[in-house]
Write a structure and sequence with these properties.
The protein contains 8 helices and 16 strands. The protein is an alpha+beta fold and 315 residues long. The chain folds into 2 domains: 142 residues, Jelly Rolls, CATH 2.60.120.1440; 97 residues, no CATH class. It has a 16-stranded mixed β-sheet that branches. Strand 2 and strand 3 form a beta hairpin. Helix 3 packs antiparallel against helix 5.
């Protein structure tokens, strides 16, 4: 057993292997193989050409098995600095654990690539055509996907990260708190009915007490970022509105869900300075905010902040 990484096989039988055995079983002969007796003496021929041919065929089959991965399956391809690991196809219920010096790369032709950092535990929950779901118990992963939005999902103890066509890192601490950082595209970070849409170049936190922070850009000032991330507890709106840049209009738009009626009006005034509100959205309309009240503000704010529109999830 390698101390740097460990694959824990689920006790459930492999459905694809069972299906293949069932299909080939019909060609098995029920009759007992007869005993043959040599009745003709022939001059022995050299057997080494047959041995070489058999070896070449065996190597070709093994190579094909190592290279080929069914489209909807995940395969461990390398570990701990690029070393090739034994051919290992994951199935539902399998767990990958890495040690202090270990790392593992998983690949799926249907989804993309998943790098598992040291001291990380990941479990494969399901892998099928329109749904690939894994659970990150603790540690850090780096995902790069090519699949349609909504296909690749990572569950954590306090939130769910739904890929919307992107590249991102996700870290979970032993107490279940964590941080999502999006490198490209978008990620839908959600918990129940609470949602945080995190764009490229931004991050959001999952707290141990089941709070999701609104997304904040990584290049925002440290004071602004700290005030946004602690808003549920500190409500330091004065710092947020005074330090917000035009690019931070996206963060302010997401902050409405956490503000009191009086704070919503203050937030509206600053956001309206950064990106003027559509005529249909009035100052008093946001006092008792609902998601539909500011829905028309999304498009101009995305344009102003240079963000691409969110891709729709695959149905």
């Amino acid at each position: 057993m390698n101390d740097d990484y460990l694959f824990e096989r689920s006790g459930e039988p492999d459905a694809e292997v069972a299906q293949l055995e069932a299909l080939l079983g019909r060609y098995r002969s029920p009759a007992t193989m007869p005993a043959f007796r040599r009745v003709v003496v022939m001059r022995p021929r050299p057997r080494w050409p047959l041995a070489i041919a058999a070896a070449l065929i065996l190597f070709a089959v093994i190579g094909a098995l190592r290279i080929y991965t069914p489209p909807n399956r995940w395969r461990a391809t390398s570990a701990s600095g690029g070393a090739i690991v034994p051919h290992f196809l994951l199935r539902a219920g399998d767990v990958v654990r890495t040690g202090a010096q270990g790392s593992v790369r998983l690949e799926s032709t249907a989804v993309g690539m998943l790098d598992i950092s040291p001291n990380t535990t990941v479990k494969l929950i399901e892998s099928r055509r329109n749904r690939h779901r894994l659970a990150l118990a603790a540690g850090t992963i780096h995902a790069r996907t090519t699949s349609m939005p909504g296909v690749f999902v990572i569950d954590t103890p306090h939130a769910r990260a739904i890929d919307l066509g992107c590249e991102y890192t996700l870290t979970v601490s032993p107490d279940g708190a964590g941080e999502l950082h999006v490198i490209s595209g978008w990620v839908d970070l959600s918990r129940g009915f609470e949602q945080s849409l995190v764009p490229q170049g931004a991050s959001a936190l999952m707290t141990a007490d089941d709070e999701l922070t609104v997304p904040v850009f990584d290049d925002a000032s440290p004071r602004f970022r700290a005030a946004v991330r602690d808003f549920a507890n500190g409500h330091d709106l004065a710092t947020i509105v005074s330090m917000a840049r035009p690019r931070d209009a996206f963060t302010l738009l997401n902050l409405f869900r956490l503000t009191t009626p009086d704070e919503s009006v203050i937030l509206f005034d600053r956001l309206n300075q950064l990106v003027p509100a559509p005529a249909s959205i009035s100052r008093e309309a946001v006092r008792y905010w609902r998601p539909d009240v500011t829905e028309r503000w999304w498009r101009p704010i995305l344009r102003a902040t240079g963000l691409n529109s969110i891709k729709k999830k695959k149905v």
